[in-house]
Amino acid sequence: MISYLTKRLLAVIPIILFAIFLMFALIRLSPVDPAEAYLAAAHIHPTEEILAEKRQEFGLNESLIMQYVQTVKQIVQLDFGNSYVTNTPVWQEVVTRMPATIQLAVSSILLAVIVSVPLGFLSAVYKNSVIDHFSRFLAYLGASIPQFWLGYILIFVFAVQLDLFPVEGRGSWQHFVLPSITLSLALIAIYTRLLRASVLEELEKVYVTYGRTRGIKEKTIMVKHVLRIAISPMLTGLGMNLGKLLTGTIIVEQVFSWPGFGRFFIEAILNRDIPVIQGYVVLAACLFIVCNLIVDVLQLYMDPRISWKGRTES
After folding, report:
1. Bridge partner list, 82
2. What is the pLDDT of residues 201-248, one digit of tens each?
3. What's the rounded Cα separation, in Å, for the pair 167 and 158?
4. What CATH number is attached to the domain comprising 163?
């Protein structure tokens, strides 16, 4: 186990360096001059003298290699610079806004898992039944409705017409209901169909027939063996979607005026706030890597056919 985790953690280093390089290259290839972007955000008229001073301050006069090395050093120290708009450290802005995004992401994932696991499992066990047809309809609905449209519909019905939940902002548990449903419906559609297909595949395996012939209880076979193995593909999707949600649910945060990381990133793009954009790209890459590593470790415990030895040798 330690050997496997060590190899995975070592493999993370070149991925992060590549992400930093890609971010660095795209910003340098863009027509936006960081010095001009800073002066525009500060509402300062860009004269040649001020531009030269800011380019010197930002290290833009040095070679690209030295700029890249300096960027890597700063990122390792969690120093992404100061925001051009707020003039506060980017890391401080991230720490301030990240809890809102984490809360919304976790609540959406939990809601999706609570609904999709029993629904996908039962729709496979009772194939072509009423619950199976309902799960297909829900999956079709969740995959078809755009998130921004669903968000506005929920606001109109449950906030404006029925006055049950607040329209925007973050505070009490009522504020989580509408954005969580908006985010989780698409996830429910994916996870339900994925789990149903996986359970149906496992039910055709020899070990299920063998367990029944041995007289093992059907509940034990289904829950302890079939569900435990069938849920593995769902965990993989869970890791990808969790990383996506943690990097900011941009559309939903805009619709519900949620003060999260994604909305902050959109504002940074509009304002050409380059330090914030750099920080977002690097943190997004790290979050995706960490989430997938956690899911891989969980799969080793959920699926008994996967051994630590096989993973470390692969």
Report:
1. 89
2. 888 888 888 888 888 888 888 888 888 888 877 877 777 777 777 776
3. 9
4. 1.10.3720.10
